[in-house]
Each structure stands twice: as structure tokens, then as C-alpha cells.
Amino acid sequence: MAEKEKIKILVVDDEVLIRSLIFDILSLEGFEVELATNGKEALGLLRSKRYDLLISDFKMPVMNGLELLKAVRNENNNTSGLLALIMSAAFDQDTVKSILALEAVYIINKPFGTDELLEKVNELISINNLMKEGG
Fold first, then answer.
1. What is the pLDDT of residue 73?
2. Model confidence over 77-89: pLDDT tens digits?
3. The domain spanning residue 83 has which CATH number?
4. Which residue in 18, 41, 49, 106 could disulfide with 36, CB within 3.0 to 4.6 Å?
5. Are 69 and 95 in contact (CB under 8 A)?
């Protein structure tokens, strides 16, 4: 497995407390974490830098998590295969289907515990490593 220091994660959430909490959890685990306040800001960062994982809230102003993920999947650069974890306090069945159709995406319900977040992140990193080895 790649060293955690080299794993770059972009966290997108319009709620400062959630962003800060996730930043603290992931930073303490040794991940390199950057933050964005909405999908539009995140898309700009994703176009200019390489990330191993995207963690995004679903419900945000400007551009929600699903719109962000669709935009990422439509890019022709290194963001098209980006793995993602989408968070929300409430998912309806149609939204879940739409998110999962975008491939390599996990869903996590808010509120979530530290262990649950880290478990999902580590699973996605393992998938990312397998994809890199196979490609």
C-alpha cells in the first residue's frame, strides 16, 4: 500500500464544522488533506491538482455533490477515474442510484463515526492502489 503521506484527499462541504472535523481525523491518520467549500471550488482544485480521493457532501449550494461527481466523470484528464465518498444526512433511493451509477463511489450517512469514515477511506484507497497496479 502506498504511504499515507502521499495520499491526497480533497474534502468538500459547505459546513465548516464538518470540513474541520474530517480534516482533523484524516490529518491525524497521516493523509494530505485539502478543503473546498462547494462543488465549484472543488472542481477548480481538481482541475489544477491531482487527488487520490474526493470526499464530498451531497447537499451544497452552488454545485451539489452529484453535480460535482458528474462534472469530474466528464473530464478528460486524470480526474475521470477519481474515487469518491459522498456524504449526506438523507439520501433518497433515486439519488443513491444516480450516485452509484457514476462508479467507484461510496456513500456514507451523516452523522458518521471516525471509525466508519476511516474504514470507507481505507477501502477506497485500497481500490485506488489496485487500479494503479492493474493499469
1. 83
2. 656 578 999 998 8
3. 3.40.50.2300
4. 41
5. no
Q: Is 56 helix (H, G, I), strand (E, B) or coil?
A: strand
* Burial tier of 44 (Cβ tally within 10 Å: 0-12, 13-18, 19+): exposed
Distances (CA, A) of 22 to 35, 65, 132: 10, 16, 25
SS3 content of the chain, % helix, strand, coil (to 5): 50, 20, 35
Q: What is the pLDDT of residues 98-127, one digit of tens each?
A: 888 877 688 999 999 999 999 999 999 998
Question: How is 67-79 classified by DSSP, letter by letter?
Answer: HHHHHHHH-SSTT
Give the domain extent around 116: 4-134
Across the chain, mean pLDDT equals: 88
- Total domains, the chain: 1
Q: How many other β-carbons are positioned within 10 Å of the β-carbon of residue 115?
A: 9
